[in-house]
């Protein structure tokens, strides 16, 4: 990779730039994704919906969030590799699985409340 | 963690309203004893704990300031909570003022590691072996 500060060539896993000493790991994490041949407009990102995937999986008891996490990883992986189209496709899939989780969760809650109110499940409590 | 999401402002408001209502419900009603909360579908159908089992009871405990009890119910949720909160606040701010909080773009391997950690946690808390059985919801509360 090239140092974003002085432009010196460094190995891909270098912690600091060999020429100017800039922290390259921080640069990787913070800088907009720039790969040779790929131009993303400033400030533009391809969303990976990771927060919502984790929300669905861990906070809402919904294993449907797992595919969303997998696709979130694909988004960032393909961005790192410069595959914009692939990242966009993975992003759409991540979004879709988040919505599936949300829809199934919401539907389940509504259904449960309806059954609860009808008194049909008054004896069936979660252990 | 990438947090941007294109929700119109009124949907942010709707989300905050729903979050508030959910918070009130989770504080007032105890998921351990009240039947108004739906059971975890995984637990209901298979009898196994999923990675999210105990998260409702953990939220209930948190809203009553009982961090230790919340941790016992679902430690993974407590670990994830600060990050998810940050991400949600950032997503809301992005809509409301056009700019989110500073972002960290996680390498793909880290995200896969999170996914693997969630699955491993889900398996481990079902194992009837010490110390894994302590990960089952509430197990730490009975440790003497």
How many H/I helical runs of chain B? 6
Q: Got a strand count of chain B?
A: 0
Which percent range fits the helix content of chain B?
A: 55-70%
Provide the residue-averaged pLDDT of chain A.
76
N-to-C series of helices and strands of chain A: HHHH
Query: What structural class do the secondary elements of chain A suggest?
Result: mainly alpha
Global morphology of chain B: globular
- State the end-to-end CA separation of chain B: 39 Å
Instruction: Give the overall shape of chain A.
Output: elongated
β-sheet strand percentage of chain B: under 5%
In words, what does this structure look like?
The complex is a heterodimer of chains A (127) and B (144). Helix content of chain A is 53%, strand content 0%. With 127 residues, chain A is mainly alpha-helical. Chain A has a domain of 71 residues. The longest helix of chain A is centred in the C-terminal third of the chain and has 34 residues. The N and C termini of chain A lie far apart (54 Å). Chain B has one domain. Chain B is built from 6 helices and no strands. Chain B is globular. Chains A and B meet through helix 1, helix 2, helix 3 and helix 4 of A and helix 2, helix 3, helix 5 and helix 6 of B.
Q: Which key terms come to mind for this protein?
A:
heterodimer; A: 127 residues; mainly alpha; elongated; B: mainly alpha; 6 helices; 57% helix; 0% strand
């Amino acid at each position: 990779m090239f140092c974003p500060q002085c432009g010196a060539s460094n190995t891909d896993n270098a912690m600091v730039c060999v020429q100017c000493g800039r922290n390259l790991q921080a640069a990787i994490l913070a800088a907009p994704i720039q790969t040779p041949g790929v131009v993303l407009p400033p400030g533009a990102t391809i969303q990976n919906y990771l927060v919502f995937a984790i929300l669905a999986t861990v906070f809402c008891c919904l294993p449907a969030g797992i595919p969303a996490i997998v696709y979130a990883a694909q988004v960032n992986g393909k961005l790192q590799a410069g595959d914009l189209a692939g990242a966009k496709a993975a992003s759409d899939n991540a979004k879709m699985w988040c919505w599936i989780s949300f829809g199934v969760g919401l539907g389940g809650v509504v259904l449960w409340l309806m059954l609860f109110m009808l008194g049909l499940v008054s004896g069936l409590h979660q252990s | 963690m990438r947090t941007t999401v294109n929700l119109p402002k009124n949907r942010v408001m709707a989300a905050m309203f729903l979050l508030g209502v959910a918070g009130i419900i989770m504080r007032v009603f105890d998921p351990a004893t009240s039947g108004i909360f739906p059971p975890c579908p995984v637990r209901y159908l298979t009898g196994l704990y999923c990675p999210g089992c105990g998260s409702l009871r953990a939220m209930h405990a948190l809203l009553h300031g009982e961090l230790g009890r919340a941790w016992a119910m679902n430690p993974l949720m407590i670990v994830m909570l600060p990050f998810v909160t940050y991400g949600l606040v950032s997503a809301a701010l992005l809509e409301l003022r056009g700019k989110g909080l500073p972002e960290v773009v996680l390498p793909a391997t880290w995200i896969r590691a999170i996914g693997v950690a969630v699955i491993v946690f889900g398996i481990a808390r079902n194992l009837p072996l010490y110390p894994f059985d302590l990960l089952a919801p509430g197990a730490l509360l009975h440790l003497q």
